[in-house]
Amino acid sequence: MVLTMRSKDVCQDMEVTESIEANCLPWEDAFALFQTKVGSDTINSHPDVPKLAEVVASECCGLPLALITIGRAMAGTKTPEERRKKIEMLKNYPAKFQGMENHLFSRLAFSYDSLPDEAIKSCFLYCSLFPEDYENSHRKIIQLRIGEGFLDEYDNIQEARNQGE
Predict the structure, then answer these.
(1) Burial class (CB in 10 A: 0-12, 13-18, 19+), 141
(2) In CATH, which of 3.30.230, 1.10.8, 3.40.91, 1.20.81 is domain 22-114?
(3) Which of 32, 134, 148, 149 has a CA positioned 20 to 30 A from the CA of residue 125?
(4) Where do the domains of the chain lie?
(5) Which letter, b or e, does each residue of 14-27 get, where b requires 16 or more Cβ atoms within 10 Å of its Cβ?
(6) Which helix or strand (DSSP H or E) is residue 162 part of?
(7) CB within 8 A of 89, min separation 6: which ones?
């Protein structure tokens, strides 16, 4: 049986017989992953962007989830000024906990705070309730959110579905 844990303490508590630690990605792999998530259109949109991308990727310290999450957030930016603003937010965002998990938490919190409105933030939080790699379709999540009452302010089911999209 193979289990994945974010904490060595959990493995020790479970008396795991063999433990393999997954390290952070080396710089080249981390930057390649980040570039893939940002997209070549964004990377090539301005001469300053590749250097800014390097700065952001280095802030993620080789953590794949952080690279993917921040890369996707940066993909939505249109101008170098927007990117610089997000980079400054990322650098100055206070980590609230210690260690690697804290470092990752601050990156995810930054990504959450960068979402454009409360409805999308609510959806983000709702989706975080599902286990990692949980197979759930976009349509199913919309149906669940309607069932939970998150989209009650709409007059009919079609408006609620449209908002969910």
Answers:
(1) middle
(2) 1.10.8
(3) 32
(4) 22-114, 118-165
(5) eeeeeeeeeeebee
(6) helix 157-164
(7) 110, 113, 114
User: What single string gives the DSSP state of each residue in 75-102?
Assistant: HT--SHHHHHHHHHHHHHPPP-SSHHHH
Over residues 82-108, the pLDDT tens digits come to 877 776 766 655 443 335 456 666 777
Give the span between the Cα atoms of 126 and 124, in whole angstroms: 5
By the 10 Å C-beta count (0-12 exposed, 13-18 middle, 19+ buried), 149 is classed as: exposed
0.85 exceeded by the pTM? no
Please name which of 36, 22, 31 lies closest in space to residue 62, comparing C-alpha atoms. 31
Residue 96 burial (CB count, 10 A): 9
The number of residues making up the chain comes to 165
Residue with tokens 């449209």: 162
Joined together, the tokens standing for residue 85 give 């603003």
What span, in angstroms and rounded, lies between the C-alpha atoms of 152 and 24?
Answer: 43
Please write the tens of the pLDDT for every residue from 50-70. Answer: 887 888 788 778 888 778 878
